[in-house]
Amino acid sequence: MKRFALILAAVFMTFSGCFAQKFTEEDVKQFYRTLQGDYVMQVNDSTTAMVHFTPIWENSGNRFQWMYVEATIDRKVVFQKVLEVRPRTSKKFRVYLYDLKEPEQFAGKWANRNFFDGFTTNILKRGHRITFVKTSDFSYQSDNGPSRYSFVNCFPKGDLLHFKFVQEDERFYIKRVPKGTNRIIGYQGLKELTDGPVG
């Protein structure tokens, strides 16, 4: 009986390995490079925000693993996170966003990515997770539709958000559903700002 169980386990592992969607460094690089950039986003009718996704710690271990994310409104920093990419398959990527223990120390440092080389992951605390799925080459979106993300404080608390990055048109899309409504508000940006719903 024990022998049969071992054979069965070996067969299962063989087949699961055949069907698993393994990822390559090129898969991770494509996802990482798609997120990277400087984006302009509309927060409301009269307010826009600048959001920077800057690679950091590229010389330590995996080159396509870490980013510093900073958002500013009227030159005031309103959002700071360190982002870690953890690929699951060639088409599924988990992104962990960490708070900084001393965020004021890193404000504006998106323009100097080497500044982070003098620090380790000890500067981080708490992690929040978003999963992205690949929809086509250089196009990724959050995998569970509009959801509530308590750590995103650029929008009113309780709003549902859905994210999409598309490198081809160099834009970062957000689909927002205001709390208590079924109304969809779409934003897209990077140098050029366009109002209206996005798919």
CATH superfamily label? CpcT/CpeT domain
Choose one word for the global shape: globular
Broad CATH class: Mainly Beta
Helical residue percent band: 10-25%
Rg from Cα: 19 Å
Unreliably modeled segments:
4-20, 189-199
Number of helices: 2
**CATH second-level architecture:** Beta Barrel
Estimate the mean pLDDT confidence.
Answer: 78
Number of separate structural domains? 1
The CATH topology is Lipocalin
Q: Biggest sheet: strands, sense, closure?
A: 12 strands, antiparallel
Question: What structural class is derived from the secondary structure elements?
Answer: mainly beta
**Binned strand content:** 35-45%
The tally of strands reads: 12
Can you offer a commentary on this structure?
With 199 residues, this protein is mainly beta. It has one domain (21-195): Lipocalin, CATH 2.40.128. The protein is 15% helix and 44% strand. The chain is built from two helices and twelve strands; from the N terminus they run ααββββββββββββ. Strands 1, 2, 3, 4, 5, 6, 7, 8, 9, 10, 11 and 12 form a twelve-stranded antiparallel sheet that branches. The longest helix is centred in the first third of the chain and has 18 residues, at 2-19. The chain is globular.
Briefly summarize what is shown:
With 199 residues, the protein is mostly beta strands.
List the helices and strands and how they pair.
Elements: H1 2-19, H2 25-35, E1 37-44, E2 47-55, E3 66-73, E4 76-89, E5 92-100, E6 124-136, E7 139-142, E8 147-148, E9 160-166, E10 171-177, E11 185-189, E12 194-195
Antiparallel strand pairs: 1-2, 2-3, 3-4, 4-5, 5-6, 6-7, 7-9, 8-9, 9-10, 10-11, 11-12
